[in-house]
Amino acid sequence: MKISIITVSYNAEATIERTLLSVFSQTYPDKEFVVIDGGSSDGTLEILKKYADKIDVLISEPDRGIYDAMNKGVAKSSGDYLIFINADDYFYDEFVLERVAQAPRADFIFGDQYDEEDGRRELAQNLGALDVYHMFRGHFAHQSILAKRELFQKYGSFDLGYKICADWDWILRCLVNGATTTRVNTPIAVFSVGGASGIAGKKGLLSRERKQLIRKNLGSLPVENALMKTEKLFRNLLRKTGLDKSIDSLIRAKLLKKFPPKNLPSSR
Question: Which of 108, 110, 188 is nearest to 154 (CA)?
């Protein structure tokens, strides 16, 4: 299978080279690299031009934000599967795509991810499944998910109405409509904590968009939302009594009954 790696960038001179080198180091042969830059005004373009002979598609022009750039990347790519590696993230090692290519051909192929902050790496938690329950909980990482190209043809592109959650919305849209998933038991990417999503969270944008996309794709979910709110309000008390796990299990059971996952066997 051909894999398209799509990187979007804007004023990323401090991190873009590490991202590029992690892509170039991939030993898997059937791949292409697409870089969509938003018209950077720092040294990003100079770094990209330095490696232009190793980039299959390189575009630099103003855009309407990260998801507009990601949509451009989809349109310019030709792979059977697509993965988005942001300009401050990078592949876990040079064999990632080799391992991923051995997985069953589900609509989504996903794996583990490390979060990196201040030079420290930690394995991201709760990425053991890609289903409606985990998306409702907010547990997913697009840097560690490969999506089949056909999904964009079936379910459309990233919705530019979202500033920070269009990837969340798109993946959930696909899952609700029956997209299949399989997990590879290996780390795929290292995610740099504290980027745009962290800033948006502080401003409350993340919370507002989350509520919007949940209602749009899953409906009102009064019981599940009430349980989530209760858990948030009384988190410390519930943890002391162990009731937080009971609430979580109830939310999981209700969501998985309403939206059964379609998982293919995991890759070993």
Answer: 108
Asked whether 15 and 192 are in contact (CB, 8 A), the reply is yes
- Start-to-end CA distance of the chain, whole Å, equals 18
Mean pLDDT, range 6-27, rounded to an integer: 97
**Domain holding 78: CATH number?**
3.90.550.10
**pLDDT tens per residue across span 186-199:** 999 999 886 555 55
pLDDT in tens, 89-110: 999 999 999 999 999 999 999 9
Number of structural domains found in the chain:
2
DSSP string, 145-184: EEEEHHHHHHH-S--TT-SS-HHHHHHHHHHHTT--EEEE
Looking at the DSSP assignment, which residues form a beta bridge with residue 33? 5
- State whether 167 and 56 are in the same domain: no
| Residues forming a β-bridge with 84 | 6
